[in-house]
Specification:
The complex is a heterodimer of chains A (about 650) and B (about 625).
Chain A: H1 2-14, H2 18-32, E1 46-47, H3 48-54, H4 57-62, H5 78-87, H6 89-102, H7 106-120, H8 126-143, E2 146-149, H9 151-163, E3 166-170, H10 176-187, E4 194-198, H11 207-213, E5 216-219, H12 227-242, E6 248-249, H13 268-278, E7 286-294, H14 300-307, H15 317-322, E8 333-338, E9 342-343, H16 344-348, H17 370-389, H18 395-405, E10 410-411, H19 412-428, H20 441-451, E11 456-459, E12 462-465, H21 477-514, H22 520-534, H23 545-558, E13 562-564, E14 569-571, H24 576-605, H25 608-616, H26 628-640
Parallel strand pairs in A: 2-8, 3-6, 3-7, 4-5, 4-6
Antiparallel strand pairs in A: 1-2, 7-8, 7-9, 10-12, 11-12, 13-14
Helix pairs in contact in A: 1-24, 5-12, 6-7, 6-12, 7-12, 8-10, 12-13, 14-21, 18-19, 18-21, 21-22, 21-23, 21-24, 21-25, 24-26
Chain B: H1 4-11, H2 19-35, H3 37-43, H4 47-56, H5 59-62, E1 75-77, E2 83-85, E3 96-97, H6 100-108, H7 134-142, E4 146-148, H8 151-156, H9 163-170, E5 180-183, H10 187-200, E6 203-207, E7 227-231, E8 238-242, E9 247-251, H11 256-265, E10 268-269, H12 282-288, H13 295-298, H14 301-304, E11 305-312, E12 315-317, H15 333-336, E13 345-352, E14 354-355, E15 359-367, H16 370-382, E16 389-393, H17 395-403, H18 411-427, E17 436-444, H19 446-462, E18 466-467, H20 470-492, E19 495-505, H21 509-526, E20 534-542, E21 546-556, H22 563-580, H23 599-618
Parallel strand pairs in B: 5-7, 6-7
Antiparallel strand pairs in B: 1-2, 2-3, 4-5, 8-9, 9-13, 10-14, 11-12, 11-13, 15-17, 15-18, 16-17, 16-20, 19-21, 20-21
Classes of the chains: A alpha/beta (about 650), B alpha+beta (about 625).
Family (chain A): Belongs to the GPAT/DAPAT family.
GO molecular function (chain A): glycerol-3-phosphate O-acyltransferase activity; glycerone-phosphate O-acyltransferase activity
Pfam families (chain A): Acyltransferase (PF01553), GPAT_C (PF19277)
């Protein structure tokens, strides 16, 4: 949210926290308003580990597994699947095409296709699944206090699986995600998914094959121009989908989000799973967004380091064994929320003209048309937003937010007070907050602090983000900055989990500050500009600016902060003093923002060392600006807004 | 329609049995006598005497005014709760159908206690008084034409057989109806009428057999002029038969079964047998691009016509010779075929005829599932060895057909039936809820038919098909003739339904069938229909590049306040689904007013513009203002 930027901005420029002011305005109005907090209806959770702790894991792994299946299922074996794919009209067509273009014989190209398929294909085996069921039970029990699942979601999934082919779309924060998904589906007697996984796993000896046998199929990270590869891959996925072989599982975000913010979704695979519907081969496809949230992420500090430019450790079996260390730590609870199935048919209603596929034989690959593209991206954004909305937020997320805003730390008592206030605000904005019932706020806060103690220093009732687990030997200033940055970025990854809740109201507040008048369209234009600037950073559907604007107005209005008149938006009487102050600063803030943009721009040009020097010299206290993710997004945004140009050197 | 002639007499308010009239009596009277015994009794008195009798006869006495077909033929549930079919006209007439009740109640969730009877008779006061163009009517009478503005005559010609049309009649609701009915008896009469219509600026709506299912006969609401229904039923003579070239020249008002019967008497046939052939007319076939069941041998209507004469406001359009094919620019016949009464009245048609086939044989094949059946039909089409007719019913329709099995007379037959069933389901392992049936009709000389039959059964065997006997085949074809009667039965018990069709490339047949059927089920559910609907299809025609698919859709409307509206919404959605799955707007029912909204998307803006400019030139005053198609 604005928090993020304005806070960065204020720290380095004017030492004034705009957001806090805004928050206070919200706070004051909260007390005066009698509105009920907006409560979205969400299902209850059930802890599946409870049962695991009580009964035998072995018996569990060997139990009778009879999943509910798709009613139109044409049963077939993994090997059979391969020959269906290789014989398909689509693949045969592309093979002939490739062969005539390259001059290679069709047999040669077919052979190549067959090799690609061998490399890619999964070979799901129940025995492997049982092995995983056993070992993962052991591991999960050590790692997590509880693994919570919404059972109503499972029931909906059970229904959906029978009706139409299903695509599972989990969020991706950790390697744990897909192991957990398969584990859960096994637990609930649902058909095991086949999972699109990156090729990196395959290079892991033994483990790669294990994953393959538990239903993973492997795709190369990039195969842009390779027609044959694309044909084999898409036909493989479509064949499984068409005959209802198994639910397809893939990650819309394409990769694990290192920042815990949802990533801009990719549409390639989404297009593949929707095409059978577009072309009439399936009546419908059910997309099931799944939100997986962790109280503490296993890869927490790994991510922060990666963001600071230390390359991701290559996936290897030995690396995995070394990582055993994680088993000894406490990662709190984990939540898996199965969202309502989204029917592709109803998504596409009125948006996709399916008769555009009438004039070409369906096996001839067709690039998606402009409106299909738009639809795909729109759908992808929507699905990611559903994922975001169903992410469970723990109290720590609120605390992290507050601690990041107060780099000098807070007293425990005021931290508890502000956390409580933020909690009400978040709830009012529809956050899915898991707050323990009947517990004093200070209790909850100290619990959270305990779980994340490695990121904090607590002394004499004063809490501050700091490095604790690094020995305090002499370090160079660069190292000190680095360690501090790791802590800040780790903490930011928690704060980022709640950004989606505040994003729209924050953009509106910012737009109001910077707008020249109260006129609705002025504010809207500012809002829209900000949306454009930040669209690489956050999940903002390209076509939804009016909707987002209205949503933001509604939320702030409900909190009594704003009054939306026909042509004007005004701060309400209760927040009038704040309004005067904010609007007075509006111009400055806006130009500051531009300066920030410039600053970030420079930083993305200069190499890391440069930034380190600046940091170390203490001129800039904004550790988050060191995140490669932020830099990447900023650069992409500038390119998009045509503020910079790519020049080949 | 045996009584077409007598009707014309009875309908004219000032009967003047002129010479021309009595002449026109002879060709059509004798066949009608030979056809139907019950009618021949009333017709048997000498002609001079019977003239007064004719006067009292009206169309409504042998045809239902608010339902399908003959008044004497209808389905009903008797006091024992058994279904029976009344009358004597059909193979099924007078028979008890013991399993229909269970099927009906089970499929629709209907109940014989819950009745929704129709208004018994037409309430004449509900019919608006005619808006007459007096000078036009007087000129017609002066020209010696039969004219009527009797409410019953007008109501009868104000509708086709769309569900909403029949439903409204059953409820006694009458919308806009034609103001005048006129009966030309020959081409010259039509020329005269069209000329007068232009002169007095009235709207003409040609009426043939009245079997339209596209709202084509509905009077446009926005029409302010006097609307005249031009009933072609009196133009029903075969004018000549040319045995050297195997052609016949026929007036366009002739009804299908009359044409076929009269030609049969001379040893010929056209072979054009649309499912509506009992009631539909030759002119109607031309105007809607009709398709016949046996098109595999004889072709569709566009393949059958050699020459067409049509009267338009600009004058008469026709070709100058009877050459079998011409390269003279775009074929002008194709402006006429499918013009749906928007350009003029087809008055005379020269058709190809064929000698009556020596031998006919029905047949049927059972497939384990619909996919296999479609694959078999595709293979038959690929080898271009389709019999005169080949149709594939899905499982639901197979069960429907089964429910129409009459009571078996002997224990032996029922034992045999049981044995057959056992063989197919238990021995061959066909799932009774998946198996489907193809019905076949072979025609030609005996030797070739038997050879052909073997070829087709051999192909079927490759797709897991088992020959299932002639009887099943014949019953399949019977279903198409009685289906419209069955709809009337359904409407007596809160069940409404209709059929619609499309044509689609082979590779999309299965997907289209599945998706459309499922769409229907889903739409019904979403709109609050309490019971799952009957949603079934069959592949009725095979072509080199695709097939024609026919859907039946019906549901129980108890608890719905506006069932017809819901029906229309579902049908609309089903049509959208068809178009989205690569199906055509229509294979043979035509566009009418029901499917007009999709015309532009179907034929492109330019295509539609072309058709409009033809209309503009031919009929600038919009005399043929039925508002169809464009």
């Amino acid at each position: 949210m604005l928090q993020f930027y304005s806070w960065v901005l204020c720290n380095c420029e004017c030492n004034c926290n705009v957001l806090q002011l805004k928050n206070k305005s919200l706070f004051s109005s909260y007390n005066g308003s009698s509105l009920h907090p907006m409560l979205k209806k969400r299902d209850d959770f059930e802890d599946i580990l409870e049962e695991r702790r009580r009964s035998s894991d072995l018996r569990y792994a060997l139990r009778c597994y009879t999943p509910t299946l798709y009613r139109g299922l044409v049963p077939c074996k993994a090997s059979m699947l391969k020959s269906i794919v290789l014989q398909s009209d689509h693949l045969q067509y592309v093979i002939k095409q490739v062969s005539s273009e390259s001059g290679e014989s069709t047999e040669g190209v077919s052979e190549e296709a067959s090799l690609i398929l061998d490399e890619m294909a999964h070979c799901l085996q129940l025995s492997t699944i049982r092995f995983f069921a056993f070992t993962l039970s052991k591991a999960f029990k050590r790692l997590f206090r509880s693994v919570c699942v919404n059972e109503e979601g499972i029931q909906r999934l059970q229904q959906a699986v029978q009706e139409h082919p299903v695509v599972l779309l989990p969020s991706h924060r950790s390697y744990m995600d897909f192991l957990m998904m398969s584990y859960l589906l096994y637990t609930y007697d649902l058909p095991l998914p086949v999972i699109a996984a990156g090729m990196d796993f395959m290079s892991m000896k033994f483990v790669g094959e294990m994953l393959r046998m538990s239903g993973a199929f492997f795709i190369r990270r990039s195969f842009g121009g390779d027609k044959l590869y694309w044909a084999v891959f898409s036909e493989y996925v479509k064949t499984m989908l068409r005959n209802g072989y198994a639910p397809i599982e893939f990650f819309l975000e394409g990769t694990r989000s290192r920042t815990c913010k949802s990533l801009t979704p990719k549409t390639g695979l989404l297009n593949i799973v929707m095409e059978p519907f577009f072309k009439g081969e399936l009546f419908d496809v059910n997309l099931v967004p799944v939100s997986i949230s962790y109280e503490r992420i296993l890869e927490e500090s790994l991510y922060a380091r990666e963001l600071l430019g230390i390359p991701k450790p290559k996936e290897s079996t030995s690396g995995l064994l070394k990582a055993r260390r994680v088993l000894s730590e406490d990662y709190g609870s984990m939540y898996v929320y199965f969202g309502h199935p989204v029917s592709v048919r109803s998504l596409a209603e009125g948006k996709i003209n399916r008769s555009q596929y009438n004039l070409l034989p369906r096996y001839i690959p067709q690039k998606p048309s402009a409106d299909t593209h738009e639809f795909l991206s729109d759908a992808a954004f929507r699905l990611v937003r559903i994922q975001e909305e169903n992410m469970v937020l723990k109290p720590w997320v609120l605390i992290a937010t507050l601690l990041l805003q107060n780099p000098d730390g807070l007293d425990l008592s005021s931290l508890a007070e502000q956390t409580d206030w933020l909690r009400h605000l978040a709830l009012a904005f529809g956050a899915f907050l898991d707050w323990p019932d009947h517990e004093a706020c200070s209790e909850v806060v100290s619990c959270s602090l305990a779980l994340h103690r490695h990121l904090l220093s607590v002394s004499a009732g004063h809490v501050q983000l700091s490095v604790t687990d690094v020995p305090q030997v002499e370090t160079t200033p660069e190292e000190a900055v680095f360690h501090q940055a790791v802590v800040v970025l780790s903490c930011a990854s928690y704060r980022n989990q709640i950004l989606h809740v505040f994003l729209r109201p924050a953009l509106l507040a910012m737009a109001m500050q910077s707008a020249n008048s109260n006129r609705k369209d002025d504010v809207y234009n500012g809002f829209n500009f900000l949306r454009k600037v930040f669209s690489n950073e956050f999940i903002l559907c390209p076509g939804d600016s009016v909707q987002d604007f209205e949503e933001a107005c509604y939320l702030l209005m409900k909190r009594g902060v704003l009054q939306v008149l026909e042509h004007e938006i005004v701060m309400s009487a209760s927040g009038h003093s704040t309004l005067a102050f904010l609007s007075g600063r509006g111009v400055a803030v806006f130009s500051d923002h531009k300066r920030l943009i410039l600053l970030r721009f420079e930083m993305s040009i200069f190499c890391f060392l440069c930034a380190f020097v600046i940091m170390a010299s203490g001129r800039l206290k904004c550790y988050e600006a060191l995140s490669s993710d932020l830099q990447k997004n900023a650069l992409a945004a500038f390119l998009r807004l045509k503020a910079v140009r790519k020049v080949k050197v | 329609l045996p009584l077409s002639l007598s009707l014309s007499l009875s309908l004219s308010p000032s009967p003047s049995p002129s010479l021309s009239l009595s002449l026109s009596l002879s060709p059509s009277l004798s066949p009608s006598l030979s056809l139907s015994l019950s009618l021949s009794l009333s017709l048997s008195p000498p002609l001079s005497l019977s003239l007064s009798l004719f006067l009292s006869l009206s169309l409504q006495e042998i045809m239902k005014w608010n339902g399908w077909g003959y008044s004497d033929s209808r389905f009903l549930f008797n006091k024992k709760g058994q279904a029976e079919f009344t009358g004597k006209r059909y193979r099924l007439s007078g028979l008890i159908l013991p399993s229909l009740k269970d099927w009906f109640e089970g499929t629709f969730g209907a109940n014989l206690q819950h009745r929704s009877p129709a208004t018994p008779s037409l309430n004449l006061s509900a019919v608006a008084p005619p808006h007459l163009n007096q000078p036009f009517v007087e000129d017609l009478k002066a020209a010696g034409l039969s004219v009527s503005h009797d409410p019953e005559d007008r109501v009868f010609r104000a509708h086709g057989h769309c569900l909403h049309e029949v439903f409204a009649l059953r409820e006694g609701r009458i919308g806009r109806v034609p103001d005048v009915v006129v009966w030309p008896s020959c081409h010259n009469d039509v020329e005269k009428i069209v000329e007068l219509a232009c002169k007095h600026n009235v709207c003409l709506i040609p009426y043939g057999g009245g079997t339209s299912v596209s709202s084509a006969l509905e009077c446009p609401r926005e029409e302010t002029r006097s609307i005249v229904s031009l009933d072609t039923s009196q133009m029903n003579r075969i004018l000549w038969i040319d045995e050297k070239n195997l052609t016949a020249h026929v007036e366009a008002g002739i009804i299908g079964q009359d044409l076929e019967r009269q030609l049969n008497e001379r040893g010929y046939c056209t072979g054009h047998e649309p499912d509506s052939m009992e009631f539909s007319s030759l002119g109607g076939w031309v105007a809607t691009r009709a398709s016949g069941m046996k098109k595999n041998i004889y072709g569709n209507i566009e393949d059958l016509v050699v020459h067409i004469k049509m009267v338009t406001p600009r004058g008469v359009i026709e070709k100058s010779c009877l050459g079998p094919r011409m390269s003279t620019g775009p074929d002008i016949h194709h402006f006429i075929l499918g013009s749906e009464g928007t350009l003029g009245v087809v008055t005379e048609v020269t058709l190809k005829i064929r000698p009556v086939p020596e031998y006919q044989k029905y047949g049927s094949v059972v497939f384990p599932n619909f996919q296999q059946g479609v694959a078999c039909l595709r293979e038959v089409a690929r080898q271009r060895c389709a019999p005169a007719s080949i149709r594939l019913m899905d499982n639901e329709q197979f069960q429907f057909g089964h429910a129409l099995k009459p009571q078996v007379s002997s224990i032996f037959t029922s034992f045999l039936d049981g044995l057959k069933k056992f063989y197919i389901t238990k021995f061959k392992g066909f799932d009774p809820h998946h198996l489907c049936v193809a019905t076949l009709l072979f025609e030609g000389d005996r030797g070739k038919v038997l050879q052909h039959e073997k070829q087709v059964y051999d192909i079927a065997a490759k797709f897991g098909g088992l020959a299932a006997g002639e009887d099943n085949g014949q019953r399949g074809y019977m279903l198409t003739f009685v289906i419209a009667y069955l709809r009337d039965l359904g409407m007596d018990y809160y069940v409404i339904g209709e059929s619609f069709e499309t044509s689609v490339p082979w590779d999309r047949v299965l997907d289209l069938c599945r998706n459309v059927k499922e769409r229907i089920v889903r739409e019904c559910k979403e709109r609050g229909v309490q019971f799952p609907p009957l949603s079934t299809c069959r592949v009725t025609q095979t072509y080199d590049a695709g097939a024609c698919v026919y859907f039946y859709f019906a549901f129980n409307y108890r608890g719905l306040s506006d069932p017809v509206h819901i029906y229309e919404q579902v049908e609309h959605a089903a049509r959208e689904e068809i178009l989205a799955n690569g199906g055509s707007l229509s294979h043979h029912h035509g566009v009418g007013k029901l499917r007009k909204e999709w015309m532009k998307a179907s034929v492109s803006g330019v295509g539609l513009g072309m058709l409009k400019s033809v209309k503009e030139y031919v009929d600038p005053q919009n005399i043929f203002g039925n508002g169809n198609l464009l």
